[in-house]
Write a structure and sequence with these properties.
With 215 residues, this protein is of the alpha+beta class. It has 4 helices and 12 strands, in the order βββββαββββββαβαα. The strands form 2 sheets. Strands 1-2-5-4-3-6 form a 6-stranded antiparallel beta barrel. Strands 7-8-11-10-9-12 form a 6-stranded antiparallel β-barrel. The longest helix is centred in the C-terminal third of the chain and has 14 residues.
Length: 215
């Protein structure tokens, strides 16, 4: 679990294809402290497991499933990525709960200055709009952002100077791909409503809801 508050960026030092999978070597551009094999790290918002660690770098494994659902398959050596280590129970939750399970790939449709900030317009997959509300939370390449506007085929988010300088977001150009993770609360609400709507029937969903309510 993550917060969407990026600790810093890193550089893809090397990548190696392994059949349909991939191995990445990442060099943080900040003091990441001691990283341990087996712990989780979010790379551009994707939760990955550290498979090897060396002074100043670490390796992660990316499965074919993850490559098919995220932008990681488009990475090249030398690319910059957002990094965040997993949340500790003692940490403050300054952003929002981010799982690192990408829902889909968005496309940067435009970037507009607004005072000292930037508005970024994103086209996202149509099936994700039901989880997005104005002033709700969304993770873009792992960065926790507030949805300022929901259009018919796009959303807009605001990137303040602090976020812009500490992440890769302002390096994105029109047409760039970004990882999108919607707020998990909306997904659970949808599931619960779906179960509620079928509760009057005799189907398995109704049985599960009845069991849940009795527990």
């Amino acid at each position: 679990m993550f917060t969407g508050l990026i600790e810093g960026t890193g550089i893809i030092k090397a990548l190696r294809r392994d059949g349909g999978d991939m191995h990445l070597t990442v060099k943080p551009r900040f003091n990441a402290g001691e990283v341990v094999v087996g712990e989780s790290v979010a790379v551009d918002g994707v939760c990955l497991t550290i498979t090897a660690a060396a002074p100043g770098s670490f390796d992660v494994y990316v499965s074919a499933e993850t490559l098919s659902r995220s932008t990681l398959g488009f990475l090249r050596s030398g690319d910059e990525v957002n990094l965040e280590r997993a949340l500790k129970l003692s940490d403050r939750l300054g952003g929002h709960l981010v799982q690192g399970h990408v829902d889909g790939i968005g496309i940067v449709a435009g970037r507009f200055p607004r005072h000292k900030s930037w508005n970024i317009r994103l086209e996202i997959p149509g099936n994700l709009f039901r989880y997005v509300i104005e002033k709700g939370s969304i993770a873009v390449d792992g960065v926790s952002l507030t949805v300022n506007r929901c259009g018919p085929k796009f959303i807009e988010v605001n990137v303040i100077p602090q976020t812009g300088s500490g992440t890769t977001l302002l390096s994105k150009r029109t047409g760039s791909r970004v990882n999108i993770e919607t707020d998990l609360v909306g997904k659970y609400v949808e599931k619960f409503v779906s179960l509620s709507n079928s509760a009057n029937g005799d189907g398995p969903d109704g049985d599960r809801l009845e069991t849940l309510l009795k527990s």
